[in-house]
């Protein structure tokens, strides 16, 4: 799933490609992806792109006063085409193309979604804040106003909830997902199950530094990369997420996993849990 660093890089890349261009056409292939009806998607035809920005994990294309807002969800992505095909994408369960944006130059974007679980979402609105998920976002963790005190107040408010869940809840902190919450907690040497309100002042400072550094470095590495390069860049720089069974790059211990119904987390026992493996009820049931 694209998270804050990748969506930030996508916004920068697309801003350079789209700004000042006119949208010639928007073709929908997956009609369920469009979550709004007024204004219609046809209202974007002829609109000039004024800018591209990010709100948490949402991409926002500002075009002549309208906003095309996209949430790429778990398996969505954007692919740039120097020249789009003459034939619009057809509604089909086989094609990953959910929508295509055609520019006045003949270039354009394919908005794709892999897999069978379709959760990519697109909105055409007059104000980006009309998008329900966007309007309820928590603070952006890379802004100047997101201080250690702000993080501390959030953790106290969340009480005994586990750190992992607090970090990735978009209404609490915007932009952090499953991968970067794993990476932040590994960098902070904290268990994903640690209660949010149990941190000492020193632990809060450590977690804040790990959050800002992990996300900031990922944004810096991604900046300037084309969309086609972002997934590989992210994967090659992860310390624990998606690395189950491999050696922790810090201590050499084996990275372990806890599985849930529709996701999993990865961690290093030596770095994060005092050498103790976390209970994985799903795996325990399989072994019985």
TrEMBL record:
Residue span(s) of domain FPG-type: 239-273
Catalytic activity reported: Hydrolysis of DNA containing ring-opened 7-methylguanine residues, releasing 2,6-diamino-4-hydroxy-5-(N-methyl)formamidopyrimidine
Similarity comment: Belongs to the FPG family.
Domain (Formamidopyrimidine-DNA glycosylase catalytic): residue spans on this chain: 2-93
Cofactor: Zn(2+)
Top-level taxon of the source organism: Bacteria
Protein's recorded name: Fpg/Nei family DNA glycosylase
Keyword annotations from UniProtKB, A to Z: DNA damage, DNA repair, DNA-binding, Glycosidase, Hydrolase, Lyase, Metal-binding, Multifunctional enzyme, Zinc, Zinc-finger
Classification via InterPro entries: FPG_cat, FPG_N, H2TH_FPG, Ribosomal_uS13-like_H2TH, Znf_DNA_glyclase/AP_lyase, Znf_FPG/IleRS
KW Zinc-finger (keyword) present: yes
PANTHER family linked: FORMAMIDOPYRIMIDINE-DNA GLYCOSYLASE (PTHR22993:SF9)
NADP found in the keyword field: no
């Amino acid at each position: 799933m694209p998270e804050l660093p990748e969506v930030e890089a996508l916004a920068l890349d697309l801003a350079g490609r789209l700004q000042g261009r006119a949208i010639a056409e928007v073709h929908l292939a997956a009609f369920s992806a469009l979550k709004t009806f007024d204004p219609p998607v046809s209202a974007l035809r002829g609109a000039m792109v004024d800018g591209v920005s990010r709100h948490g994990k949402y991409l926002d294309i500002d075009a002549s006063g309208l906003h095309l807002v996209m949430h790429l969800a778990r398996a969505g992505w954007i692919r740039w085409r120097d020249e789009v095909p003459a034939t619009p994408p057809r509604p089909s369960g086989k094609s990953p193309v959910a929508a295509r944006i055609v520019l006045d130059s003949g270039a354009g974007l394919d908005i794709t979604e892999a897999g069978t679980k379709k959760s990519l979402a697109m909105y055409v609105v007059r104000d980006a804040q009309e998008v329900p998920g966007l309007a309820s976002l928590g603070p952006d963790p890379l802004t100047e106003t997101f201080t250690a005190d702000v993080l501390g107040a959030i953790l106290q408010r969340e009480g005994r909830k586990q750190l992992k869940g607090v970090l990735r809840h978009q209404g609490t902190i915007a932009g952090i997902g499953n991968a970067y919450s794993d990476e932040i907690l590994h960098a902070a040497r904290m268990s994903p199950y640690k209660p949010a309100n149990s941190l000492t002042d020193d632990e809060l400072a450590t977690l804040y530094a790990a959050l800002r550094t992990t996300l900031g470095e990922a944004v810096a590495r991604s900046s300037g990369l084309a969309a086609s390069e972002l997934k590989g860049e992210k994967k090659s720089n992860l310390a624990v997420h998606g690395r189950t069974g491999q050696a922790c790059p810090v201590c050499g211990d084996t990275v372990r996993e806890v599985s849930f119904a529709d996701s999993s987390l990865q961690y290093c026992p030596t770095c994060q849990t005092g050498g103790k493996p976390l209970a994985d009820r799903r795996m325990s049931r399989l072994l019985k």
